[in-house]
Predict the 3D structure of the following.
Amino acid sequence: MFFRKYEFNLTLIPTIAFIVAFICFIRLGFWQLERANQKNNINSDYTLRQDEPLINLNKINPINKKESLLWRRVELNGSFLNKKNIILDNQIFNKIAGFNILTPFLIKGGNHVVLINRGWQPNLPNRDLIPNIINIDGDKTLKGHIAKFPTSGITLGQSNIETMNSSVFRMQRLDFDELKYFFTFNILPYMIYVDPLLDKENYNTFKLPAPDSEKNYGYAFQWFAFALTLFIIFIKLGIRKKNVIKSKK
């Protein structure tokens, strides 16, 4: 009975525009769901690796096992190279701008050097100020977590490396090839977030490798809501009551 009283009368172009937009919204929604699932899988892998036994980097070849070492808890013995501290700029923690302090560490019994993330500090009042980075001398045994170099950061100007004094250098981002040239020794392609921290004034920013999957679910809901809203508008604009002309008897 309903279909006898109403008819659909939108023209071809608006109908095509609706179909294209509707399909795009749906695909974007499913893409966000896929991104959320990818993050959840990565974080599940991270959680499983956290439960695995501690790895001693002095007893393995640390450069040939990068992928299997990521996010693992490790122990290593060696000494800090205090003459090339790095301030990794533009690092956000709890919505506050700051920097991480990184110091190279020579693993005992070999020629491999790994960057030790000594924690985060908020930006100083003046960019010309140099944070107080305490030298850590002698043979040390550290524990921590292996992670990839941060992918955030931009290069301001031509050079990514800014010399602040003879032992402190500021970088906007970490580039493995650039680091090899800068340090002139066998640098490993990952860093270690030391835990517990050696510097009490710093903050530990080690976190899930792929956080915020909840945001992707939220974005997916928004795209599906857009698609539904568009569908309702399309139906309302397209359906009209039929003009029924009654014949006079």
About this structure: Helices lie at 2-5, 12-50, 66-69, 176-183, 213-238.
